[in-house]
Amino acid sequence: MADITFFVEEPDGQRTPIEVPTDMGLSLMEVLKGSDYPILATCGGMALCATCHIELLEGHANDPTDAELDMLDTLFNTTEQSRLSCQIRISELSHGAVLRLRGETN
Ligand code: FES
Q1: What is the pTM of this model?
Q2: Pocket flag, ligand 1, residue 48 (CB < 6 Å)
Q3: What's the number of domains the chain is made of?
Q4: pLDDT profile of the chain (106 residues), mean per 10
Q5: Contact criterion met (CB below 8 Å) for 88 and 49
Q6: Which domain holds residue 72?
Q7: Cα torsion at 22, 32, 36, 13 (round to 10°)?
């Protein structure tokens, strides 16, 4: 079983490591919620609520779907690094990736 570690950049700039198995079919949103980050995920991961908005600061993941891009288009606080974490598969997130939560400011 392969694990990866990614990092969440906290508001104070500290980076919290999160280690997660890649073979359980999890989305990044599910892992963040499971790690007690304040993500509402009201739509249950359907790319409809944007409460799971993150910025992928370092590293890469699967390409965004049209549904994800359409939802990101409706937000006012997106950057070029914006993603919906429910649409990122842990199996395609790069080891050592760094992200910042943005959904709570929507
Ligand atoms: S959980 Fe609703 S858009 Fe990601």
Answers
A1: 0.94
A2: yes
A3: 1
A4: 91 96 96 96 96 97 96 95 98 97 69
A5: no
A6: 3-105
A7: 110
